[in-house]
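Hi U.,

Before I forget, here's the chain from the pilot set. I'm dumping it here mostly so it's searchable later in email.
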Amino acid sequence: MDLSWDENQWPNPGVSFGNLDQTSRVLKPENVLQEPFLTFAKAYFRYMQRAGKRKAFTEMRALRVLERALVNRTGGASIADVDGCILDAAAMLAREAYSAGVAYQAGRELAKLATFLSDERLVPRCLQWASPIARPADTVRTGRQAREERVRKLPDAAAVEAMAELFASHPSEPRDVFTTSLSAMLLCAPSRIAEVLALESECEVRETCKDGSISYGWRLWPGKGAAPYVKWIPGVMAPLAEEAIGRVRHMTQDARWLASWLERNPDQFPRHAQCPRVAEDDALSLDQIGAALGCLDVDSNYIRGEINRLGFFLRQGPITLRMLNEWVRSKLPKEFPWYDKDRGLRFADALFSCLSNLLDTERRVMPLVLKKPTSNTFNDDVGSRENSASIFERHGMSVDKSSKKLTSHQFRHLLNTMAQRGGMSQADIAHWSGRTSIEQNRVYDHLSEFEVVEMIKRHDPVLKTDSVVDSNLKLLADKVPMTRQEFDLLLVPTAHVTEYGYCVHDFVMAPCQRFRDCLNCSEQMCVKGDRRLARMQERLMQVNALVERASSEIANGTAGADRWFETHQMTQQRLAQLIEVMQSAQVPDGTLIRLRANQEFSPVRRALRKRSLALPPADGQTGMLDNG
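Structure:
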């Protein structure tokens, strides 16, 4: 980058070193970062851009909040004063000054900055700091926030329909052709506007499929690290994409011709159609100068004013094409012949190469000056800029401007949401959108909770509300140890199935006090005749072995073995009692059995005893055998 160190605003990368009070594009002197932090900010920004080759200048958000935190806490702006408290204060400022997503990015950049300061020993202490700002949720499906998010990130239907109407009207003005054609292209495939603006003039690809049909796509270089690939356009949208590219290609052909001439003939004036056929050093008349500059059908006074504006004066001597060629060369873009050097795209090959003022509705086109349109050129024309007339206003669209406000990225959100609604796989959506990870799809998925439910029902008919559930109820009934009528007779409000029966513990009162020790719990209920008897017998065999082993360990003097012996012996006795009742012929099938545990601790029982209250008998329940 060609950067001037003494300037506080660098136009080429589009960065201004202003503090948190700076909100406009023009940097005000009173909002410049304080020294010596300003010098560090410039050096750090330049270093990070060189090291990472990044285009998103997110480090500036961290620098602004850090400078304000330093000023508030120390009264100065020295980077050497940064510590954990200063970074925490900067994170708090980021939460207050930025939206949730931007604040998260600022916190992440603050953490990188802290690591940089420690690694380069620019602070007297080691900074092991992590950002306290959590990443905001990628998607919110329900509630008011979800509705507001969908309205903000998805284009308004009325605006899309109005743009379609304008495209179908075959506009002739270059600005209208640019805006409508670019909108159509953004609706053909989920692309970032920078990717579309960086297309080659000959970007179209056509391949014959096995069934004889023709697949249509664009050779495209996606952003954010993905490799170049062909972005295929759905067949229903292919004619629209071809028409849009054809209109743009026709509108910008003069710019590509000029770029090609200037690149191949550095010492000659561009010999366009209106250029007078004279030698480079021949003196030009006033009319010839006007023709060379593309000023046709204008009076001589206008041509004189144009010559003076270019810095030439007739009274100082004759003007030649060679002199005009020097002026043309001085107006070339800084990176000429490159339109996008990172993508290897030249002005002579770029689809959106433009002549200066070609997309300006009020100024005359400058046929000898090249210009590269940006995303702002489009966004300003679709209503994102309050102080300028949008394309809808220029054509007298009757709907309110607020509903016709669009952004280029809303089309990308719309197509991703439509792909989600249509059931496209996450891998295909990520590839179609030019992403490196399917996790990034979540940010662009704006299906409502009702749409998600309908999709699930559509793919799984069993989940429909009118489906028969008797079979599911029967399967559930086979798994429970008692009938619903039997359960209704109980005096307990809750129950859940266990390995040997079911538990009637009320978790509203207290958590389980005997987790995974149901056999020694008085809230364990069993049903006579239940198939779980086999489990009890198998468990008794295991406990008998454990009792013998614990007894052997006691004889060998193993510390703590006596406690294990007592625990296993109690379990052994309770299992033997339970199995005896379960196998007794005197107990009818279906009888509910619960073993009493007098030693069991109970907060409720303890509280009742403290108040000298008599406990209600537990064996007076209908159909229940309380074995004590």
